[in-house]
User: Fold these one by one.
Assistant:
Number 1:
Amino acid sequence: MSTLTSASVPSGMLSIQVHLSRLRGRVKRIPRT
C-alpha cells in the first residue's frame, strides 16, 4: 500500500509524513494524561 501511494503521489506522501511527524512531536511534547 505504501509503495503504491509513494509511486502514485510522492509529494502527497511527503506532506502526510511531515504532518504525522509534527503531530507526533506535539503529542510527545504535550501528552494528554
Number 2:
Amino acid sequence: MDELYNRYGKSGVNTPGNRFRHWRKRYCWFVVAGGASLLKRTLDIIVAASMIVALSPLFLVVAACIKLTDGGPVIFWQTRVGKWGREFPFPKFRSMVVNAEELKDSILDQSDHGDSVTFKMKKDPRVTWIGRIIRKLSIDELPQLWSVLTGDMSIVGPRPPVPREVARYTLADRRRLDVTPGLTCTWQISGRGDIAFNEQVELDSAYIESQTFWNDIKILFKTIPAVLSGRGAY
C-alpha cells in the first residue's frame, strides 16, 4: 500500500498538475465542440435564408402549378423523426395526389427496394405531372429550408425518416438519429433513391464519424451537380 501511495499518491493522477491537465482537456473539448456546432448552425442560417430569398419567385410558380393541377394543398406535411428520436413536422411541395398516403398501403409490395425499411418506386402512380418535374430536380424538398431555419433540420445531415421506418430500425440503424437530420447528405450525392437502405446507413454512419465543417461544404457543393443530373430522383 505504501508503495502504491508513493507511486501514485504523490505524483499520480490526483496531483494539482494532473487535475489541471484533465480539466483543460475537457474544457478544450467543449470549446471545440461548441464552436463546431455554432459554425454549422451559422452555415445553416446563411444558406437557408439566402436560398429562400433567391428562390422565392420559383416557389410562387411551383405553388401555382400545384394548385391549378387539382386544387389541393400546395404543401404536404408529414411527420418525420429527427435528432434523438424527436418527431417534427416536415414540409414538401405536394408532388402526389391528395390522398397519396391512404393509397400507399396498396402499393407497398411494388417497392423497388423490396421488403426494405424504405419505400421507393420509380413509376409511382400517385405522382402528378407537376410532381414528376419537381421531384426530378428535387424542387419538392425546398420547403424544408424553413425547417433548417427553425432548427429542426440542418443543410447537411442524414435524411429524416418517417416513424414507420424507425420502428424497423436496428440498434445500428438508430445511429442516424444521433445528429440533426439534413436537406442533403452523402448518399443523396451518391445516387439518392438508387442507394439501398443498408448502404444509406453505412454512408450516414461514416459521415457522422468524420463530420466536419469542411466536409459539409464539400457535400453542399456536390449536391448541385447531383440534383441537376436527376440520378435516383423519382
Number 3:
Amino acid sequence: MINAVLVFNNAGQPRLTKFYTQLRLLQFPPPPPLLASSGTSHTPSHSSTPHNDVPSLVTYRHYATLYFIIISTSTESPLALIDLIQVYVEALDRLFENVCELDLIFNFETLHATLSEMVVGGVVVETQLEKVVEGVKLQGRVAKRPVNERGGGIGLGGSGFGWAGR
C-alpha cells in the first residue's frame, strides 16, 4: 500500500504532498537530496516493527530539479513504484506539454487530479498513460497556459503586465 506521494525540488521545498495514511515522522530517513545517490529505494534501519502494513520503504526518482518520492509498505515492489513515478511524470508532461517546476507550482490542481486518476486510497488503480491523461482532461482540470496574452493579469486591467507564459 502506498502511504504517501511527495514531490520536492532540489532545495527541499515541497511541490506536492499527498498522504493516504497518517505517518510518524520519526520512522523515515531525511529527504532524498540528503540520501546517498546510489540507490532508488531505502528501508530505514530504525523501523522497529516488522509488520507488513507499516510504512517502511521509501522509493524515489530524480527528474531535472525535482524528486518524486513514494513512501509505501514493504509489500510493494520498488520497480513497480519506479514505473508508477515514470507514468506520473509522463502524464504530467503530456498534460502540460513539456512540464517544468513552475507548472507544478501554478497548476497544483492538475497535479492532484493526475495523481487521483492513478492512486485511490493508497492503491494503484490505473497505470495506462493514455487513460490517465484522458481521465484528467475529462475532469476539466488541465490549466491552459496563456501564451503572449497582454492584460490578462489579475486586477491589472489591460496595463500590459499580465503573465506572458514562457
Number 4:
Amino acid sequence: MGPEAVDRIMDLLDEVDEKVQALTDKVNDILSWVPWGLGWVVDKFKDLWAAAMDKLGEFWDKVKEFISYIGAPWDLDSAKQEWIELGSPVAARATEADRSQSAVDTEWKGQAADRYAMSLGAQGKALTAVQGKLSSVIGPALGSVSTALYIFYGAVAVAIVAMIVGIVTATGEAVSILGLPAVPPTVIVAVATAILALGTAVMNLRGAASGANTEFLKVANETGDFGTDNWPRAVVG
C-alpha cells in the first residue's frame, strides 16, 4: 500500500459528491410535479431533507479534519528501515572502543594516549546506546505510526464505501412523491455512521501518534550516553 491508497480515498470522496448530486437531481425531478393533495408530504420531506443536508455538512467538516492526518506511512517505513540498519553496524563498532582491542598502547604513547584511552569506555557506551537507546526505540515507534496510518486509510475507505451504499439505497427509495419521506432518514443514518467511523479512526491514529511521541521524548531526554564528554574533543570540534 502506497500513495495510491490516498488516491483511492480521494476518488471515494468524489464518488460521494457524485452520488449525493444524483440523489438531489432525482429528488428535484420528483418535486417538479406534485399531485394535488400531497403538499403535506412535500412539507414533511423538506424538513427531513434539510436535516439530511445538515448531516452531510457535518460529514464534510469531518473530512477536512481527517485530511490533515493523511500523512505518508511509506516515508515512515523508509525512515524506520534506515534507523534499523544504522543500529547494528554502529553497535559493532563499540568493541573497538575497548582498550584491550585498541592499538593505542602500541602505536601511541604519552599523556595524550592515556587520556584518550580513558575516554574509550564512555565512547563504547555511547556507540552501544545508538542501537540500545536510539535505533531500537525510534525504528519501532516510526513503524507503529506507519501501521496506524495504514489502518487509518483502511478504516476511512470502509466508512466512505458504506456511506456511498447508503446514499445509493436512498436514491433507490426516491421513486415517487410518497416514497420521498423515507429518503432523508436513510441518508442521515448512512452519514452519521460514517462520521462515527471517521471519528474513531482519527482517535485511534492520534493514540498511536501519541504513543510514538512519548518514545521520541524519552529518547530525547536520555542524552547521557551521547554527551560531548563521551567523545575526544577532536571529534566533537
